[in-house]
Amino acid sequence: MDGDWCSLEELGPLSQLTRLNISSLENVSSSSFAKKARIDEKVRLSYLRLECTSRIGHDGQLVKDEEGIPEKQQRGIEEVFNELHPPSGLETLGIRGYFGQRLPRWMVSTTVVALGCLRILTMDDLACCTELPNGLCQLPCLELLQIIHAPAIKRVGPEFLQPNHHWHNHSQVGASFPRLSRLDSIGLVELEEWEWQEQVKAMPILAQLKLEKCNLRRVPPSLAFHARALKKLFIYDVKHVCSLENFASVVHLDVFRDTDLERISNLTKLQKLVIVECPKMKVLEGLAALLRLNLEDYDMQTVPRYLQDVKPRLMLMDCSLPLLTSIAAGKHGPEWDKFSHIHQVKAYADDEGIPRKKYMLYTRDPFRFETNISFSAIARHGIAPSSDQWTVSSGVFSVHTTCRRQI
Q1: What are phi and psi of 394, to 5 degrees?
Q2: Would the pTM of this model clear 0.90, i.e. be above it?
Q3: Which InterPro entries does the UniProt entry name for this protein (predicted)?
Q4: pLDDT, tens digit, for every residue of 56-103?
Q5: Do 226 and 323 reside in the same domain of the chain?
Q6: Nearest to 278 by CA among 301, 295, 253
């Protein structure tokens, strides 16, 4: 023992452990030391975290001073992890900083069934892995899967979803990832393709999916077809996806900085939609259940025309001060026809470094329109709102400055 630290060999006799975090595994000189830890014999262990020092930088790639990890080091860490086989009763597993090319043998299809109690799996900073493990889809209890920062993965192939023949014939569920309710894929920065064959049943109770920071060209149509319990879908910084369609069960969709996204359609149960900095967005259709639309883009020069094709009860907009000034002209301004059909609109802009200092609040029925944008500021935009509208707006100014922060 050295303070609170011990060697892997000293872990061997500790048979009653329930939680274990092993870090700096890159310093283990031989897999024989890992074997002496006897991880697979610790039958009471429910939580295990295995860590190496991360080689991933802030951009999601190998750190700049890394010219590649030597093959000898990669083989060495693979051998160490192969000897850290978790016990069959493990419920939570975290792997961080692993830099082998191949994931441990106990994560592939022929042996992963031994982890039949695993509920939560997090894999973070997989610097050199080129494939996701092909056995995870067999785990009958897996509920949460997080894959974070895996810059060498360019494709998710069919092996990720298809169980091996033996398991498929004996499974009562008949679907891959039968209990998975949440999947997060974050920072697979080179990922371009996710293949999901139409006949492959998978993720029948998936409720939440996050795809963030990748080059995926499309979200597989089979996801919308088979993941019929999906309620929340978050697509952040996915550069090449052009459309999101036919997710019949989704009620909440966030799209952030998806620079090529043009169309969102046929999401018949969608109630909340958040669009942030999606400059090519052109089409919103088939969103009959939409209740709330949040729109944020400080580079917008005009209110998007696609708003005319949806009718949420509430729209919340964050935009530039010049655009807000144009909106604040109300029915006398150029933006009015794009949002006047919406029951309630709340639009904000930052001013003098103060977030949301300026605002416009509008209710269709009963009609109410107010703003703290000055008459002179609107007039400088070449727009002259009627004096009766402006008088009403000024009369209720103080009421809404105290209430609007509750939104």
Answers
A1: -65, -30
A2: no
A3: LRR_dom_sf (IPR032675), LRR_R13L1-DRL21 (IPR056789)
A4: 877 777 775 656 788 899 999 999 999 999 999 999 999 999 999 998
A5: no
A6: 295
Residue 155: inside a domain: yes
Tokens of 180: 């998975």
Rounded CA separation 132/147 (Å):
9
Beta bridge partners of 347: 317, 360
Mean pLDDT for the chain? Answer: 87
Output the DSSP codes for 48-72. Answer: EEEE----B-TTSSB-TT-S---HH
Residue 331, C-beta contacts closer than 8 angstroms, at least 6 positions apart? 340, 389
Alpha helices in 221-275 (DSSP H): 221-226
Residue 18 belongs to a domain: yes
**Nearest to residue 253, comparing CAs of 220, 299, 289, 201?**
289
Domain-ending residue, one of 180, 195, 230: 230
Q: Which of 100-109, 351-360, 378-387 has the lowest mean pLDDT?
A: 378-387
ω before 13 within 30° of 0 (cis)? no
10 and 118 housed in the same domain: yes
Domain membership of residue 219 as a residue range: 1-230
Whether 310 maps to a domain, the answer reads: no
CA 51 from centroid of its chain's CA atoms: 23
**Are 153 and 130 spatial neighbours (Cβ–Cβ below 8 Å)?**
yes
Give all strands (DSSP E) within 208-271, no chain letters.
Answer: 208-214, 232-238, 243-245, 252-256, 263-265
* Residues 58 and 64: beta-carbon distance below 8 Å: no
Q: What is the pLDDT of residue 377?
A: 87
How many angstroms separate the CA atoms of 99 and 42, rounded?
26
Task: Indicate if 43 and 149 belong to the same structural domain.
Answer: yes
The three state secondary structure string of 74-89 is HHHHHHHHHCCCCCCC
Q: What is the pLDDT of residues 17-56, one digit of tens each?
A: 999 999 999 999 889 999 999 999 999 999 999 999 988 8
148 residue type, one letter:
I
CA angle at residue 282 from 365 to 211, to 5 degrees? Answer: 100
**Overall number of domains in the chain:** 2
